[in-house]
C-alpha cells in the first residue's frame, strides 16, 4: 500500500485506528441547518451542549442521558467534528432508550487521505 511518512520510512498501518482522548459534547438533536461548517469541522452549533464527557486514553467513555435523540460532537482544536448524518440532515444522531445501553463508536477521520 502506498503511503507517505514525514521521515520517508514506511510505518505500520493500524486498520482499527488509534484510540483518542477527546471531549465529547452532547447537544439536543441538531440539523445541518442549525450549524455552520468550515471545511470538515463545525464552527458553530445552535444552542448549548446539554452535557459533555471526556474519553479516556483508550478512547472509551460513558455518560448517562435521559431517553431521547441527541447529536454528539467531538471537540477538536479547530472546531467540532461529526461525520454521521441521517436522511433528514440530523448531525451524528444517537438514540438513547430507557434501560438500554447505546454504543457510539466515532471515527475521527477529517484529516485522513483516501
Note down, in words, how this protein is organized.
This protein is mainly beta. The chain has a domain at 23-96. It is 0% helix and 31% strand. It contains no helices and 7 strands. It has strands at 23-28, 35-38, 41-45, 51-54, 68-76, 79-81, 93-96. Strands 1, 4, 5, 6 and 7 form a 5-stranded antiparallel β-sheet that branches. Strand 5 and strand 6 (79-81) form a beta hairpin.
* SS class: mainly beta
Shape category: globular
Rg measurement, Å = 16 Å
Outline the low-pLDDT stretches.
1-5
User: What amount of the residues lies in strands?
Assistant: 25-35%
Question: What characteristics describe this protein?
Answer:
114 residues; mainly beta; two-stranded antiparallel ribbon; globular; disordered N terminus
Q: What secondary-structure arrangement, pairings included, does this model have?
A:
Layout: E1 23-28, E2 35-38, E3 41-45, E4 51-54, E5 68-76, E6 79-81, E7 93-96
Précis, in short:
This protein has 114 residues and is mostly beta strands.
